[in-house]
Design a protein that fits this description.
This protein is of the alpha+beta class. It is 24% helix and 23% strand. Its cofactor is FAD. Its EC number is 1.1.99.2.
Length: 358
């Protein structure tokens, strides 16, 4: 997933809350109202159930994918997802460039390389199976001078080692045939690269999770994790569900295990659970320009530069969108609010956290 809405040095933390001793039972309800998101209905527990085998904190694409997969593999488990916003996929999952990458860039043999190559095929299959629109519009990585050609050829070799399908090097004439308004001396053609609305994919995961018996609680912002210290009389429920998750509005749910997929707040959730807050989230916002609608026909697919090894980003590129628009970017500027998507968004705590981290 191309998460260019914000660049972060830590995307998601998985924390398992291990069994402690008994915790006094909580009776506070965590029920929330039913809602519809993009044609899919999400609702909280209307049965009053607040005890689960596994609770996933975070209703973004990582949390929802993890929840769905856990339930598919272990349908006997009681699972719930907690999301602090009114809607699922409100942040990273809905603020990215929407590219389905093919696995060219990653070190051969690495987990990133394997998962990206396999993930592309699985993403297309999931979209086909669930009627989610996508476009397999391809990508050209274009060398504009002779100095960039060795790096481009190295990318080609890396992609071949990673098992990326359909990769080929093309010359200047073929670049013009594929992208009439693009000029370069040589390019790497990745025909299986595509685009999709990852927010829509995430919401589909959520819908699928609920259809299979999982529960989604929105507007449940985690304030604290509490674990049972010792047995309370004859009540064994605390031993069975030793972790209590407390919301900002005093909602509570209890769980045997907790999986935290908190995105831009994963470090703070880790700290609340008793783990280290390092590595720290340091957010960089990516700004894009929008091509004028009457000029969008000038670009057919993704056009990327050859990455500069001096920088940790892929460089400014042309990215077509599912709505027909064309993005140009991104840059990378320090974000003064973790979930701030506008130029002047500011949060004092987030800013101090970022600037104070060595």
């Amino acid at each position: 997933m191309a998460a260019h809405g914000k660049f972060v040095f830590r995307v998601c933390t998985g924390i398992l809350g291990r069994n402690a001793s008994l915790l006094k039972p909580h009776t506070a309800s965590a029920s929330l109202q039913t809602m519809k998101i993009a044609g899919r209905q999400f609702c909280s527990s209307n049965t009053g159930q607040t005890e689960f085998d596994v609770v996933i904190v975070g209703g973004g694409i990582v949390g929802l994918a993890a929840a769905r997969e856990l339930l598919l593999r272990h349908p006997q488990l009681k699972l719930a997802v907690l999301e602090k916003e009114k809607e699922l996929a409100s942040h990273q999952s809905g603020h990215n460039s929407g590219v389905i990458h093919s696995g060219i860039y990653y070190t051969p043999g690495s987990l990133k390389a394997r998962l990206c190559v396999e993930g592309l095929e699985l993403a297309y299959k999931y979209c086909d199976d669930n009627n989610i629109p996508y476009k397999k519009c391809g990508k050209l990585i274009v060398a504009v001078d002779q100095e960039e050609i060795p790096r481009l050829e190295k990318l080609y070799e890396r992609g071949q080692q990673n098992g990326v399908k359909g990769l080929r090097l093309v010359g200047a004439e073929e670049i013009r045939e594929m992208e009439p308004h693009c000029r370069g001396v040589k390019a790497l053609d990745s025909p299986n690269t595509g685009i999709v609305d990852w927010g829509e994919v995430a919401k589909s995961y959520g819908s699928n999770f609920q259809q299979n018996g999982g529960q989604v609680f929105t507007e449940f912002e985690v304030a604290d994790f509490k674990t049972t210290k010792e047995s309370q009389g004859d009540n064994a429920e605390g031993l069975k569900y030793p972790v209590t998750i407390v919301g900002q509005n005093k909602q509570t749910v209890r769980a045997r295990y907790v999986l935290s997929c908190g995105g831009l707040y994963s470090d703070r959730l880790a700290e609340k659970s008793g783990c280290s807050s390092v590595p720290k989230i340091v957010g960089f916002r990516g700004d894009y320009l929008l091509l004028k609608p009457e000029k969008c026909h000038l670009v057919k697919g993704n056009i990327y530069p050859v990455p500069n090894p001096a920088f940790p980003f892929l460089g400014v590129h042309f990215t077509p969108r599912m709505d027909g628009s064309m993005w140009l970017g991104p840059n990378a500027v320090l974000a003064f609010k973790r979930e701030g998507y506008k130029l002047l968004d500011f949060n004092l705590k987030d800013t101090v956290d970022a600037l104070g981290f060595k």
